[in-house]
Amino acid sequence: MRCVTGLLPEASLSELLDESISFDATTTRGLTNHLPMALVAKAGLGASSVELKRFADRYSQRLAEAPEGIVELSRANWQLAVGKTSAYPDLVHFFNQEVKELGVDELLRTYLEKLVAGISGAAFHGVVRLAYALDVRSSNRVSTALAYLASSATTLAPLEQISPRTDSPERLLSELSKTPEWASIPPMKLISEEMSWVAAQPQFSRATSSLEVNGSTPELLAQAALRVYASTDDFTALHGVTGMEALARIRGYVEDTATFDRFSFQALAAAYTSIGAPAVWSETRLSEVASRDRIDMSAVATKAAMSDDEHVAKLVFTSNRLFSANSNPLYLFVSQRAIDNDVTTAEPISRIADC
């Protein structure tokens, strides 16, 4: 294990992101590698180059080098690798070659449409990594992120062809909360495993196929995810907030946005039911927490930029952007709460001894 002491040399975000591509898509414990996402989030919150280098050195101790690819994929057979975590290096090589020919935008327009059914994979981390890669786009960052989305893609359940009943995601989530199956979810290691378990239950597919989608659906999904997280402070629900924002930001690369939105709702519903489908706070309660003394988002962002908890950095980064877009004060509330609960904020750089 490396020991970092004293002041660290500066390294640009671009340099650190390019270095991060050499690591495997998962940690040595089999969890998602958050390094490229956390670096983008922390930089977006104002972290210095020194802080980014400190964080990267610390986080990379969880990682291993990406293995070499084994199978040569082509346009004719690449879909055979979708959903196979072991195929990640093969997909990286394939998409790296494709982006050289197509460019970033055409790469996504060509291949993202074919991955829509699996966008819930790895508890939304595939889509979040891709959305963040577009923030700091380079050909290889985007193609590598797309490879992770493809290798982690997980189809939860088929969409049933039934008449939609409502355009309100929250109404359908409320109906799911009255179903008893979600109270007996067996313990599992990964959020994605819990999401797959609930999606296999008899009532799930019909309920989540009932949403009427329209131009307001992405905003309504983001609002539903935020209200669930505000009400529960649940770790899985946090992923719904960051996941819905990421999905909205890559949505423009698919032609069939109606199907994309339906699968987005299905993913959110799976995350929600996987935590037992808890009741969402009343409008009165949500308004109460959102109308507390005004929170200084700049101060919250400064603290999150120094956090060693990658999920805190990502949540505040997402909330900061969405609050800037729609001024919903619930984003301030969940950001402040995350900071209040965070015990990982780094010491000033000059005093670091990370061994």
Summarize the entry for a quick read.
This protein is mainly alpha-helical and 355 residues long. Helix content is 55%, strand content 1%. Strands 1-2 form a two-stranded antiparallel ribbon.
Query: How much helix, percentage-wise, in residues?
Result: 40-55%
H/I helix tally: 17
Low-confidence parts: 1-8, 347-355
Shape assignment: globular
- Provide the residue-averaged pLDDT: 92
Rg is: 20 Å
Label the structural class: mainly alpha
Task: Output the strand order for the largest sheet.
Answer: 1-2
- Biggest sheet statistics: 2 strands, antiparallel
DSSP summary, beta strand count: 2
Series of H and E elements? EHHHHHHHHHHHHHHHHHE
Beta content comes to under 5%
Q: What is the CA-CA span between the terminal residues? A: 7 Å
Can you offer a commentary on this structure?
The protein is mainly α and 355 residues long. Among the domains are: 10-65, no CATH class; 78-152, no CATH class. The chain has 17 helices and 2 strands. Helix 4 packs across helix 7 and helix 16 (310-326) runs antiparallel to helix 17 (330-341). The chain starts with a strand and ends with a strand.
List the helices and strands and how they pair.
Elements: E1 4-5, H1 13-20, H2 35-44, H3 49-59, H4 88-102, H5 104-111, H6 125-135, H7 139-152, H8 169-176, H9 191-199, H10 204-208, H11 217-232, H12 235-250, H13 257-274, H14 283-290, H15 297-305, H16 310-326, H17 330-341, E2 353-354
Helix pairs in contact: 1-2, 2-3, 2-6, 2-16, 4-5, 4-7, 6-7, 6-12, 9-13, 11-12, 11-13, 11-17, 12-13, 12-16, 14-17, 15-16, 15-17, 16-17
